[in-house]
Amino acid sequence: MSNIFYDHLIILTEVETEIKNVTESPEEKEELWNLVDEIIHHRILGLILDALPREHHEEFLIRFHQAPHDERHLKYLNEKTEKDIEEVIREEIKMLEKEILEQIRK
């Protein structure tokens, strides 16, 4: 899992507990975490692009691909979206955690 600028906003304590409970091997655990990581990444990038005016998409994606870990992306997004993007991401993570837990528990 690579370091992404929004990683500090992702707290999945319940998902972590549930994954520990349902997996039998380290390989299964790693596979589930890789799926969770991929889901989160796609959801958060989609959320960001939905909030970001279209004329800034290319610039943001270039900046992101050059330095995915750079937390200055948050300031950039706050300015361009005129929203508290950290709070928007936190709320999305809460909803996503519920969805992931439902899927794991099925």
UniProtKB/TrEMBL annotation:
<protein>
    <submittedName>
        <fullName>Uncharacterized protein</fullName>
    </submittedName>
</protein>
